[in-house]
C-alpha cells in the first residue's frame, strides 16, 4: 500500500523529467536536423539542375566554335602582343597618322590575382566556404599600351574612333594632344590604352548560379561584337633564319 | 452478549472511493509514462532517420559537385565567364569616354577660341585644356559654354597670359561627369 502511494508522485516526476529534459531537447534536435535536411535536399536539387544544364552546355560547345573564336579574339586568353602591335599599326596607317612610339606594359594587378588564387586553392575549404569566398564576377587582366602618333586633327580623331572598333576590347584611358614642333597643322597625340585578356581557367573552384543557371549559351553578345567591330590583323612569321645576326 | 455472524454466503466489501481513485490514478500515470517513453523512442528514431537522409543528401551533393567541377565543364565555365565579361565590355565600349569628351569639346568650342594642348585622364575624370584667343570676352564665353555642357561638371579657369603676338593664352581645368 505504501509503495502504491509512492508510485504516483514518482511517475509524475519521471514524466515531467522526460518532458523537460529528454523529449523537448530531442524534438528540438530532430527539428533542427529536419531543417538541415531540407537545406541539404534543396542544395541537392539545385546541383542536379545545374548538372543537367552543364550536360546540355557541354553538348553545345562543339556547335558554337565560330562564336567562341570571336569571343576569344575580343577577350583573348593571353596578351597576344603581336596582334596588338600589328592591328594598331594597321589602324594608324589606315587613318593616315604616323606612329612614333608604341609601348606595352602588363598592369600590376596580375600578380595580386595569382597570389589570391593560390591561397584560395590551398586553403582546404569546403565547397560552400569556397563558394562564399568566390569573387562574384571574374575579372580580366590588363595590358596597357602607350601610343604616340603624329598627324592632322581629323586623322587623329579618326584614329581614336577606329581604335574603338578594333575587334579586341580596348579603352583609351588618357589622351593628350598638342602641337608637334612648329608645323601648324601637325599634332602629336599621346594616348594610353587599356586592353583586357582573360586567361583560361585551370580548375573550377566554385559553381556560380549564373554559369549553370541555364542549359543554353547566350551568344547575343557575339552578334553585337561582330556588328560594331572590325577584324584584328592576323600576324604571320614569314621567312626566317639568318647567318649573320648583325646584318640584313 | 457476544455477536455471532451466522451468515455462510460471500460478503461483498463496500466500494472504497479512495482505493478506486488510487487504482485509476496509477493506471493513468503508468499510461502517461509509457506514452512519454514511446515519444522519446519515436523522436530518437525520427532524428536518426533524418540524419541518415541528411548524410545521404550530402554524399549525393558531393558526388554531383565533383561531377560538375570536372571534365568538359571547365570549358563551359571558361566560355560562360568570357561571355559575361564580354557583355560588360561591349556595354562599356558603347560610350567611349575619350571620344565622347573630345566630341563634347568640339561642340562647346566658341568662335575665336582654339586649343593649343589637350590632356584628358579617364581615371582622374579630368580634362586640362590650354586655349588661345584674341579677347577676354571670348574667354568668358568659352567658360560659360563649358559650364553649359552636359559632359562637364566643373570648370576651373587657370592662368591667363597675354603673349607677345597679342594673343591670350588661358588654362582650363574641367571635371568630366
Commentary on this structure:
The complex is a heterodimer of chains A (248) and B (177). Helices cover 51% and strands 17% of the residues of chain A. By secondary structure, chain A is of the alpha+beta class. Chain A has two domains: 1-74; 76-107 and 138-202 and 218-228, 2-Layer Sandwich (Alpha-Beta Plaits). A four-stranded antiparallel beta sheet of chain A has the order 1-2-4-3. The longest helix of chain A is centred in the N-terminal third of the chain and has 60 residues, at 2-61. With 177 residues, chain B is of the alpha+beta class. In chain B, a hairpin with a 4-residue loop joins strand 1 and strand 2. The longest helix of chain B has 52 residues, at 17-68. The interface between A and B is large, with 78 and 67 residues.
Query: Class by helix and strand content of chain A?
Result: alpha+beta
What's the number of domains of chain B? 2
* Percentage of β-strand residues of chain A: 15-25%
Number of E strands of chain B: 4
CATH superfamily caption of the largest domain in chain B:
General secretion pathway protein M, EpsM
List the domain count of chain A as a whole number: 2
Q: What is Rg of chain B?
A: 48 Å
Strand fraction band of chain B? 15-25%
Sketch the topology of chain A as an H/E string, one letter per element. HHHEHHEHEEH
Rg of chain A to the nearest angstrom? 32 Å
Key terms:
heterodimer, A: 248 residues, alpha+beta, Alpha-Beta Plaits, 2 domains, 4-stranded antiparallel β-sheet, 17% strand, elongated, B: 177 residues, Gyrase A, domain 2, 4 strands, 55% helix
Helix-strand layout with pairing:
The complex is a heterodimer of chains A (248) and B (177).
Chain A (H helix, E strand, L loop, with lengths): L1 H60 L3 H10 L6 H14 L3 E9 L2 H14 L4 H7 L7 E11 L1 H12 L5 E10 L7 E11 L22 H9 L20
Chain B lengths: L16 H52 L4 H21 L3 H12 L4 E9 L4 E8 L2 H12 L4 E11 L5 E9 L1
Antiparallel strand pairs in B: 1-2, 2-4, 3-4
Amino acid at each position: 500500500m505504501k509503495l502504491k502511494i509512492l508510485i504516483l508522485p514518482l511517475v509524475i516526476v519521471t514524466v515531467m523529467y522526460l518532458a523537460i529534459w529528454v523529449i523537448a531537447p530531442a524534438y528540438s534536435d530532430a527539428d533542427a536536423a529536419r531543417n538541415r535536411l531540407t537545406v541539404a535536399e534543396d542544395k541537392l536539387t539545385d546541383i542536379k539542375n545545374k548538372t543537367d544544364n552543364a550536360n546540355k552546355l557541354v553538348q553545345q560547345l562543339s556547335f558554337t566554335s565560330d562564336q567562341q573564336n570571336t569571343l576569344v579574339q575580343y577577350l583573348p586568353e593571353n596578351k597576344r602582343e603581336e596582334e596588338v602591335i600589328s592591328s594598331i599599326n594597321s589602324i594608324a596607317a589606315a587613318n593616315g597618322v604616323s606612329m612614333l612610339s608604341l609601348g606595352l606594359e602588363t598592369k600590376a594587378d596580375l600578380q595580386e590575382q595569382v597570389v589570391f588564387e593560390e591561397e584560395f586553392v590551398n586553403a582546404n575549404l569546403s565547397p560552400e566556404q569556397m563558394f562564399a569566398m568566390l569573387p562574384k564576377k571574374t575579372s580580366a587582366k590588363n595590358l596597357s599600351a602607350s601610343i604616340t602618333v603624329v598627324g592632322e586633327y581629323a586623322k587623329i580623331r579618326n584614329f581614336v574612333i577606329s581604335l574603338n572598333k578594333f575587334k579586341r576590347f580596348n579603352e583609351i584611358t588618357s589622351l593628350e594632344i598638342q602641337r608637334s614642333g612648329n608645323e601648324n597643322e601637325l599634332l602629336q597625340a599621346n594616348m594610353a590604352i587599356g586592353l583586357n585578356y582573360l586567361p583560361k581557367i585551370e580548375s573550377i573552384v566554385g559553381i556560380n548560379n549564373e554559369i549553370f543557371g541555364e542549359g543554353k549559351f547566350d551568344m547575343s553578345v557575339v552578334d553585337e561584337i561582330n556588328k560594331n567591330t572590325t577584324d584584328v590583323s592576323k600576324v604571320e612569321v614569314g621567312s626566317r633564319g639568318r647567318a649573320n645576326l648583325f646584318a640584313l | 452478549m457476544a455477536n455471532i455472524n451466522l451468515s455462510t454466503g460471500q460478503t461483498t466489501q463496500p466500494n472504497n472511493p479512495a482505493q478506486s481513485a488510487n487504482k485509476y490514478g496509477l493506471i493513468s500515470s503508468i499510461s502517461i509514462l509509457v506514452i512519454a517513453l514511446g515519444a522519446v523512442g519515436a523522436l530518437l528514431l525520427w532524428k536518426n532517420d533524418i540524419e541518415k537522409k541528411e548524410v545521404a543528401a550530402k554524399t549525393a551533393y558531393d558526388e554531383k559537385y565533383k561531377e560538375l567541377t570536372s571534365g568538359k565543364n571547365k570549358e563551359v565555365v571558361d566560355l560562360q565567364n568570357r561571355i559575361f565579361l564580354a557583355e560588360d565590355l561591349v556595354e562599356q565600349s558603347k560610350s567611349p569616354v575619350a571620344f565622347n569628351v573630345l566630341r563634347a569639346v568640339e561642340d562647346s568650342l566658341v568662335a575665336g577660341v582654339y586649343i593649343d594642348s589637350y590632356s584628358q585622364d579617364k581615371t582622374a575624370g579630368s580634362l586640362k585644356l590650354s586655349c588661345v584667343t584674341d579677347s577676354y570676352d571670348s574667354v568668358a564665353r568659352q567658360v560659360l559654354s563649358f559650364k553649359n555642357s552636359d559632359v562637364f561638371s566643373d570648370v576651373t579657369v587657370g592662368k591667363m597670359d597675354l603673349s607677345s603676338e597679342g594673343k591670350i593664352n588661358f588654362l582650363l581645368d574641367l571635371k568630366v561627369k
